[in-house]
Design goal:
43% of the residues lie in helices and 16% in strands. It has 282 residues and is an alpha/beta fold. The strands form three sheets. Strands 1-11-8-7-5-6 form a six-stranded parallel sheet. Strands 3-2-4 form a three-stranded parallel sheet, with helices on both faces. A two-stranded antiparallel ribbon has the order 9-10. The protein is globular. The mean pLDDT is 95.
Length: 282
Protein backbone atom coordinates (compact mmCIF):
# COMPACT_ATOMS: atom_id res chain seq x y z
CA UNK A 1 0.00 0.00 0.00
CA UNK A 2 1.36 3.39 -1.00
CA UNK A 3 2.06 6.25 1.35
CA UNK A 4 -0.71 8.82 1.05
CA UNK A 5 0.66 12.29 0.39
CA UNK A 6 -2.24 14.13 1.96
CA UNK A 7 -2.53 17.81 1.25
CA UNK A 8 -3.90 18.92 4.62
CA UNK A 9 -0.61 18.69 6.56
CA UNK A 10 1.30 20.45 3.78
CA UNK A 11 -1.36 23.15 3.55
CA UNK A 12 -1.27 23.62 7.32
CA UNK A 13 2.50 24.12 7.19
CA UNK A 14 2.06 26.84 4.56
CA UNK A 15 -0.88 28.44 6.37
CA UNK A 16 0.97 28.54 9.67
CA UNK A 17 1.61 32.19 10.38
CA UNK A 18 -0.61 33.57 7.60
CA UNK A 19 -3.37 34.55 10.03
CA UNK A 20 -0.88 36.52 12.09
CA UNK A 21 0.38 38.27 8.97
CA UNK A 22 -3.21 39.11 8.00
CA UNK A 23 -3.86 40.50 11.47
CA UNK A 24 -0.72 42.63 11.24
CA UNK A 25 -1.94 44.03 7.93
CA UNK A 26 -5.38 44.80 9.33
CA UNK A 27 -3.75 46.63 12.24
CA UNK A 28 -2.20 48.92 9.63
CA UNK A 29 -5.54 49.48 7.92
CA UNK A 30 -5.06 46.94 5.13
CA UNK A 31 -7.40 43.97 4.66
CA UNK A 32 -5.78 41.43 2.33
CA UNK A 33 -8.41 40.82 -0.34
CA UNK A 34 -8.81 38.32 -3.16
CA UNK A 35 -11.09 38.84 -6.16
CA UNK A 36 -12.42 35.66 -7.75
CA UNK A 37 -13.52 36.12 -11.36
CA UNK A 38 -15.67 33.23 -12.60
CA UNK A 39 -17.54 32.80 -15.88
CA UNK A 40 -20.25 30.15 -15.72
CA UNK A 41 -20.71 27.36 -13.19
CA UNK A 42 -18.45 24.49 -14.15
CA UNK A 43 -18.41 21.95 -11.31
CA UNK A 44 -14.61 21.92 -11.01
CA UNK A 45 -14.53 25.73 -10.87
CA UNK A 46 -17.15 25.72 -8.12
CA UNK A 47 -15.18 23.12 -6.18
CA UNK A 48 -11.99 25.15 -6.39
CA UNK A 49 -13.80 28.37 -5.51
CA UNK A 50 -15.34 26.80 -2.43
CA UNK A 51 -11.97 25.51 -1.26
CA UNK A 52 -10.32 28.87 -1.89
CA UNK A 53 -12.98 30.75 0.06
CA UNK A 54 -12.65 28.39 3.03
CA UNK A 55 -8.86 28.75 3.04
CA UNK A 56 -9.08 32.54 2.79
CA UNK A 57 -11.51 32.67 5.71
CA UNK A 58 -9.10 30.63 7.84
CA UNK A 59 -6.14 32.88 6.99
CA UNK A 60 -7.85 36.25 7.28
CA UNK A 61 -8.14 37.01 3.57
CA UNK A 62 -11.34 38.70 2.41
CA UNK A 63 -12.94 37.46 -0.81
CA UNK A 64 -14.99 39.28 -3.43
CA UNK A 65 -16.61 37.28 -6.20
CA UNK A 66 -17.20 38.68 -9.65
CA UNK A 67 -19.58 36.26 -11.36
CA UNK A 68 -20.24 36.31 -15.10
CA UNK A 69 -22.43 34.09 -17.31
CA UNK A 70 -20.70 31.30 -19.21
CA UNK A 71 -21.48 33.04 -22.49
CA UNK A 72 -20.25 36.45 -21.37
CA UNK A 73 -18.64 38.63 -24.00
CA UNK A 74 -14.94 39.28 -24.19
CA UNK A 75 -15.60 42.92 -23.28
CA UNK A 76 -17.51 41.92 -20.15
CA UNK A 77 -14.65 39.71 -19.02
CA UNK A 78 -12.03 42.37 -19.67
CA UNK A 79 -14.13 44.97 -17.86
CA UNK A 80 -14.22 42.71 -14.79
CA UNK A 81 -10.44 42.42 -14.84
CA UNK A 82 -10.09 46.19 -15.27
CA UNK A 83 -12.27 46.67 -12.18
CA UNK A 84 -9.84 44.49 -10.25
CA UNK A 85 -6.90 46.52 -11.53
CA UNK A 86 -8.53 49.83 -10.60
CA UNK A 87 -9.62 48.83 -7.08
CA UNK A 88 -6.78 49.58 -4.68
CA UNK A 89 -8.46 47.52 -1.94
CA UNK A 90 -8.05 44.32 -4.00
CA UNK A 91 -4.59 42.75 -3.72
CA UNK A 92 -4.93 39.49 -5.63
CA UNK A 93 -7.04 38.04 -8.43
CA UNK A 94 -8.01 34.47 -9.21
CA UNK A 95 -9.40 34.04 -12.72
CA UNK A 96 -10.97 30.58 -12.91
CA UNK A 97 -9.90 28.84 -16.09
CA UNK A 98 -10.16 27.47 -18.71
CA UNK A 99 -12.69 29.82 -20.26
CA UNK A 100 -14.89 28.91 -23.22
CA UNK A 101 -13.18 31.57 -25.37
CA UNK A 102 -9.39 31.06 -25.43
CA UNK A 103 -8.82 34.47 -27.01
CA UNK A 104 -10.77 36.20 -24.25
CA UNK A 105 -8.88 34.21 -21.63
CA UNK A 106 -5.49 35.17 -23.06
CA UNK A 107 -6.55 38.81 -23.33
CA UNK A 108 -7.71 38.83 -19.70
CA UNK A 109 -4.41 37.34 -18.55
CA UNK A 110 -2.59 39.99 -20.57
CA UNK A 111 -4.29 43.00 -18.98
CA UNK A 112 -4.34 41.83 -15.36
CA UNK A 113 -1.94 43.85 -13.24
CA UNK A 114 1.11 41.66 -12.46
CA UNK A 115 1.06 43.04 -8.91
CA UNK A 116 -2.40 41.49 -8.44
CA UNK A 117 -1.68 38.22 -10.21
CA UNK A 118 -2.14 35.70 -7.39
CA UNK A 119 -2.17 32.65 -9.67
CA UNK A 120 0.75 33.22 -12.04
CA UNK A 121 -1.29 33.83 -15.19
CA UNK A 122 0.19 37.07 -16.54
CA UNK A 123 3.07 37.16 -19.02
CA UNK A 124 5.21 38.77 -16.31
CA UNK A 125 4.60 35.94 -13.84
CA UNK A 126 5.13 33.24 -16.45
CA UNK A 127 8.32 35.03 -17.49
CA UNK A 128 9.56 34.73 -13.93
CA UNK A 129 8.82 31.00 -13.92
CA UNK A 130 10.55 30.37 -17.24
CA UNK A 131 13.59 32.61 -16.71
CA UNK A 132 14.05 32.42 -12.96
CA UNK A 133 14.23 36.22 -12.96
CA UNK A 134 11.60 38.72 -11.84
CA UNK A 135 9.07 39.17 -9.06
CA UNK A 136 6.06 37.28 -10.46
CA UNK A 137 4.62 34.28 -8.65
CA UNK A 138 4.26 30.79 -10.15
CA UNK A 139 0.82 29.29 -10.79
CA UNK A 140 -0.57 28.08 -7.48
CA UNK A 141 -1.15 24.48 -8.59
CA UNK A 142 2.35 24.15 -10.03
CA UNK A 143 3.85 25.47 -6.81
CA UNK A 144 1.57 23.21 -4.78
CA UNK A 145 3.06 20.12 -6.43
CA UNK A 146 6.52 21.07 -5.19
CA UNK A 147 5.20 22.08 -1.78
CA UNK A 148 3.78 18.59 -1.29
CA UNK A 149 7.01 16.92 -2.36
CA UNK A 150 9.01 19.18 -0.05
CA UNK A 151 6.67 18.61 2.90
CA UNK A 152 7.10 14.84 2.64
CA UNK A 153 10.87 15.08 2.23
CA UNK A 154 11.07 14.02 -1.40
CA UNK A 155 14.37 15.13 -2.90
CA UNK A 156 14.20 16.34 -6.52
CA UNK A 157 17.95 16.52 -7.12
CA UNK A 158 18.84 14.32 -10.07
CA UNK A 159 15.43 12.60 -10.12
CA UNK A 160 13.67 11.67 -13.35
CA UNK A 161 10.32 13.48 -13.46
CA UNK A 162 7.64 12.94 -16.09
CA UNK A 163 4.84 15.48 -16.48
CA UNK A 164 1.71 14.54 -18.44
CA UNK A 165 0.34 17.78 -19.86
CA UNK A 166 1.84 20.87 -21.48
CA UNK A 167 -0.62 23.63 -20.65
CA UNK A 168 0.44 27.01 -19.29
CA UNK A 169 -1.85 26.35 -16.34
CA UNK A 170 0.20 23.45 -14.92
CA UNK A 171 2.20 21.28 -17.34
CA UNK A 172 4.80 23.75 -18.57
CA UNK A 173 5.15 25.76 -15.33
CA UNK A 174 5.59 22.72 -13.10
CA UNK A 175 8.16 21.33 -15.57
CA UNK A 176 10.19 24.52 -15.21
CA UNK A 177 9.94 24.52 -11.41
CA UNK A 178 11.14 20.91 -11.32
CA UNK A 179 14.08 21.77 -13.56
CA UNK A 180 15.01 24.67 -11.30
CA UNK A 181 15.31 22.08 -8.54
CA UNK A 182 17.67 19.97 -10.68
CA UNK A 183 15.23 17.26 -11.69
CA UNK A 184 15.51 15.85 -15.21
CA UNK A 185 12.10 16.47 -16.76
CA UNK A 186 10.20 14.88 -19.65
CA UNK A 187 7.03 16.75 -20.60
CA UNK A 188 4.49 14.54 -22.35
CA UNK A 189 1.28 15.22 -24.24
CA UNK A 190 -1.41 13.56 -26.34
CA UNK A 191 1.02 12.78 -29.19
CA UNK A 192 3.79 11.28 -27.09
CA UNK A 193 4.57 7.84 -28.48
CA UNK A 194 4.06 4.96 -26.06
CA UNK A 195 3.12 7.30 -23.22
CA UNK A 196 2.69 4.53 -20.60
CA UNK A 197 6.25 3.33 -21.20
CA UNK A 198 7.64 6.86 -20.83
CA UNK A 199 5.71 7.33 -17.60
CA UNK A 200 7.03 4.07 -16.15
CA UNK A 201 10.55 5.47 -16.44
CA UNK A 202 9.78 8.28 -14.00
CA UNK A 203 10.81 8.51 -10.37
CA UNK A 204 8.16 11.21 -9.97
CA UNK A 205 5.06 11.21 -12.17
CA UNK A 206 2.86 14.30 -12.28
CA UNK A 207 -0.50 13.70 -13.95
CA UNK A 208 -1.93 16.96 -15.31
CA UNK A 209 -3.63 15.73 -18.47
CA UNK A 210 -7.11 16.96 -17.61
CA UNK A 211 -8.59 13.57 -18.43
CA UNK A 212 -10.35 11.61 -15.72
CA UNK A 213 -8.91 8.16 -15.03
CA UNK A 214 -6.30 8.37 -17.77
CA UNK A 215 -3.42 6.99 -15.70
CA UNK A 216 -3.92 3.33 -14.88
CA UNK A 217 -1.52 0.60 -13.81
CA UNK A 218 0.08 0.45 -17.27
CA UNK A 219 1.59 3.91 -16.57
CA UNK A 220 3.26 3.11 -13.26
CA UNK A 221 5.70 0.81 -11.51
CA UNK A 222 6.89 0.09 -8.00
CA UNK A 223 9.05 2.79 -6.44
CA UNK A 224 7.34 5.77 -8.01
CA UNK A 225 5.80 8.88 -6.48
CA UNK A 226 2.60 10.03 -8.21
CA UNK A 227 1.17 13.54 -7.94
CA UNK A 228 -2.38 13.68 -9.29
CA UNK A 229 -3.30 17.24 -10.32
CA UNK A 230 -6.58 16.33 -12.01
CA UNK A 231 -9.95 17.15 -10.52
CA UNK A 232 -13.15 15.97 -12.15
CA UNK A 233 -16.75 15.54 -11.07
CA UNK A 234 -18.18 12.08 -11.77
CA UNK A 235 -21.76 11.35 -12.79
CA UNK A 236 -22.38 10.39 -9.18
CA UNK A 237 -21.26 13.85 -8.06
CA UNK A 238 -18.01 12.70 -6.46
CA UNK A 239 -14.52 13.98 -7.24
CA UNK A 240 -11.80 12.02 -8.99
CA UNK A 241 -8.43 12.75 -10.56
CA UNK A 242 -6.47 11.88 -13.68
CA UNK A 243 -5.26 8.72 -11.93
CA UNK A 244 -7.26 5.55 -11.28
CA UNK A 245 -6.44 5.79 -7.60
CA UNK A 246 -7.70 2.43 -6.35
CA UNK A 247 -5.62 0.54 -8.91
CA UNK A 248 -2.46 2.67 -8.96
CA UNK A 249 -2.22 3.07 -5.18
CA UNK A 250 -1.43 -0.62 -4.78
CA UNK A 251 1.56 -0.38 -7.16
CA UNK A 252 3.45 2.85 -6.45
CA UNK A 253 5.30 3.94 -3.31
CA UNK A 254 3.46 7.21 -2.70
CA UNK A 255 0.48 9.03 -4.21
CA UNK A 256 -1.71 12.08 -3.64
CA UNK A 257 -5.43 11.40 -3.16
CA UNK A 258 -8.25 13.25 -4.94
CA UNK A 259 -9.82 14.99 -3.17
CA UNK A 260 -7.52 15.84 -0.28
CA UNK A 261 -4.26 16.17 -2.18
CA UNK A 262 -2.96 18.94 -4.42
CA UNK A 263 -6.15 21.01 -4.20
CA UNK A 264 -5.81 21.71 -0.49
CA UNK A 265 -2.25 22.90 -0.95
CA UNK A 266 -3.17 25.03 -3.98
CA UNK A 267 -5.59 27.13 -1.93
CA UNK A 268 -2.97 27.63 0.80
CA UNK A 269 -0.47 28.86 -1.79
CA UNK A 270 -3.14 31.19 -3.18
CA UNK A 271 -3.82 32.74 0.23
CA UNK A 272 -0.09 33.18 0.77
CA UNK A 273 0.27 34.98 -2.57
CA UNK A 274 -2.55 37.39 -1.67
CA UNK A 275 -1.05 38.21 1.71
CA UNK A 276 2.36 38.76 0.15
CA UNK A 277 0.80 41.11 -2.41
CA UNK A 278 -0.94 43.07 0.35
CA UNK A 279 2.34 43.33 2.26
CA UNK A 280 4.05 44.62 -0.87
CA UNK A 281 1.44 47.39 -1.11
CA UNK A 282 2.74 48.79 2.16
Amino acid sequence: MAQLLKGTPAAAAISDGLSARSAALRAQGVTPTLAIVRAGERPDDLSYETGAMKRCEKTGVAVRRMLLPADCSKDALLNAVRQVNDDASIHGCLLLRPLPDPDAEWAACGILSPQKDADGITPASLGTVFTGQGSGCPPCTAQACLEILDHYGVSLEGKRAVVIGRSLVIGRPVSMLLQQRNATVTMCHSRTKDLPAVCREADILIAAAGQAGMVDTSYVRSGQIVIDVGIHVTEAGTLCGDVVFDAVESVVDAITPVPGGVGAVTTAVLAKHVIEAAENCL
